[in-house]
Amino acid sequence: TGTGVKALALALRVNSHLTEAMLSTNLIDDGSAEIIADTLKVNDILRKLDLNFNYIANRGAKCIAESLVVNKSLTELCLDSNDISDTGAQHFSKALEHNKTLVMLKLNEHFVSAALLREICEKLDKNMGRKSKLFLDTLNGDKKTSWSRSRLMVVGQGKAGKSALIRSILGLPFNKNWDSTIGAEISESQIAGPRSGSQPTHAGWTKVKGETNMDYASKFAARIMLQQLNQSRKTPEKFRMKENTELPRERTIVTEEVQMPSITSKLKKKKSTHGVLDSKTKTLFQTRSVVRNFDVDLLVDAENAENSLTLSMWDFGGQEVFYSMHHLFLTKSGVYVLVFDMRGMLQWNKKNDALAYMSFWLRSIRLHAPNAPLLLVGTYMQDIRIRAKGVITINGLIRKLVKSLGFTQIVKNSVHKLEFFPVDNKERIGITMLRIEVERIVRQDKNTWQNISIKWMLLLDEMLEKRNEQAYIQLSDVTQMAAKVGVHQVAELDEALRLFHEQGMLVHLTATDTLKNLVIVKPQWLIDALSKVIRDGSLHSYNLQAVEKQGLKQDLRLAFDTALFSRDFLEYVWDGEQVPFLVDLMKRTLLMSEWNFRNEEYYLVPSLLNNVTKTGKRLGNRFVLDFSSSFLPIGVFQRLICLVVSHSASNRSRHGYVLQEPKLSKNAALIEVEPQFHIYLQEDIKHQNIVARVNDPQYAAKSVRIIQSMIRKLNCDVMGEGLKWETLLEDSTRLGKLVNYDQAKKEMMAPWITKASRKAEPEAQNVDLDSFLNCLQFD
């Protein structure tokens, strides 16, 4: 009605968000159409206007047409089933001689002549041709804009409610039967943003469904196009036509149809019934509709997505067995959320363990991402409410821990003046505030708004298209893809792959040339594959019936009792898919080592070792790798075992040595490296060190060099060079006093320092595993 149209028109004059107005079947007449037309002259946000099935006649059509001379935002206008004849339609034909943005116009084909419809359609085609050309120029250019993307990594102890928290943040219902996460789960969400400014909103978090080829380049090009169009509208022309004013004409130039090249031929096409058509012009319209619809939808989506964010959300499994694997996927940039169960903090028999897990994760995050923001989130708030001063007590414990660690990355709860954010996933307590705070932090992160080239988006599309066929690509193939889209410099390609890795789009490990040569385009596939081997048997068991049917019952028992996997069992759990690749990847990332001490083919996975050896006195010369000044993460000792066993296995196969089978446990290892040369290793979590003993003094110097080289290698390959330690050597002449390695070198302290040991140690950085093991042969 007229009153309603006036109110809506008034709102649209100051609108900064609405892009589509659906006003069909609203009794809108010529008077109301004139009000709408006046609004269109000042509104620069609206993209689609649907006025079908109203009472707009030629006078109203003339007003709306005249507004199109000024309006530079509307791309789609629907006026079907109104009372518009040739008299009104000709005003649209005249307006389109000046309007360069409208690409869809729907009129009543029964009231407007075929000739006039064809004339209007040709002018719409010219507008579409301009947009198509701009779109094509953008795709083939080198313009940059921000990706507006970040990564959210949710970590913490098992069963603390991490998965439930992600569901709560996304507005999904609480599921009490949700299984604990195996390895890690990756999802993606989009956060709607305001049209202007950067103030966060608590509405509009949407989970992106499925792993689809998102056509990032087209969306990126549309965003750049929109920025250019908005720039051109910053100083709109003030133009108001008087009644009966003739529109100035310009000569119509007939141009060839714009041909979209192969770079856009893979884009998803959509059918439509919108446009100017009757029975005579239908064929002409349908040959253009795909391009037209594609372009309009992209621009509308880009407008709707203005200031929006995309988050790659990683939910890391909390069981300790997964921690060794997690080191591969924790990145320097992004936002971390550390989730803990508040109930454990208030139970005397669980408090120390709860604080130990929190300490582990705080130091792990600082190791991998020393500058990334971190939010602490305590779950089960509903249970804590009944306890007097429960939250205050927990806050005091956390504050003390954070202060003792010197941790400065925590985003505090300024509203409640707490170190953490208390929530309850079931009752939705605290979720809205947490959601707002996460969004605020992401928007403040400069990495979120990093400008990148559209060439990188084209490269990303090329790579992700391959995941329908394969899980990983050779770097040589990626290099060819890069050259195809205009990325020719190695440094630029490396930077693009680093960004995609940091943002969670793919996995590209660069510690060695062999690892660097592989680009994993399906990160979830890799995590799932690793988690079929590395898992908590008490929580994530295999299908015992299926295992027994395959005759692998003993293989399964061996895997969980001794951490040894037969080749047959690996073939089974990986279903014969990419077994050589996965075995090689696990070996090179120090998650697995060959075990050639038996007649059959076995592999050791140290993170599954679960029996604990009691600390006791051992004979032999002792040296200590002391991490107490910083941190000894879970997984370092397991990887060290992996390297020592690999070295022993390599010596056995290369030199034909007859060596004893290593004796291993979760925290200790006795390994014969060479005949009569045994190294005993023990992890001391309490004192944050690794103690090593060698049985024969003649091997003392060699053992120190081997172990130090191995620690340096795993530090470079997996820990981002974040480990800090001091090597201490036992001085038998001074009642077992421990002496710093550098001081011992100066003193030539026997038996640890010899002339041979004073040589430079083997290179560990960017050295493949096989080459590294070859270098561990000392005189």
From TrEMBL:
Gene3D superfamilies listed in its UniProt record: P-loop containing nucleotide triphosphate hydrolases, Ribonuclease Inhibitor, Winged helix-like DNA-binding domain superfamily/Winged helix DNA-binding domain
Roc domain span: 143-445
SUPFAM superfamilies tied to this protein: P-loop containing nucleoside triphosphate hydrolases (SSF52540), RNI-like (SSF52047)
Cited PROSITE patterns: ROC
Top enzyme class: transferase
Enzyme Commission code: 2.7.11.1
GO terms assigned for molecular function: ATP binding; protein serine/threonine kinase activity
Name of a matching Pfam family: COR-A
UniProt entry keywords in alphabetical sequence: ATP-binding, Kinase, Nucleotide-binding, Repeat, Serine/threonine-protein kinase, Transferase
Highest taxon in the source lineage: Eukaryota
Catalyses which reaction(s): L-threonyl-[protein] + ATP = O-phospho-L-threonyl-[protein] + ADP + H(+); L-seryl-[protein] + ATP = O-phospho-L-seryl-[protein] + ADP + H(+)
Matches recorded under PANTHER family: C-TERMINAL OF ROC (COR) DOMAIN-CONTAINING PROTEIN (PTHR47679:SF2), PROTEIN TORNADO 1 (PTHR47679)
Name this polypeptide is given: non-specific serine/threonine protein kinase
Species annotation: Aplanochytrium stocchinoi
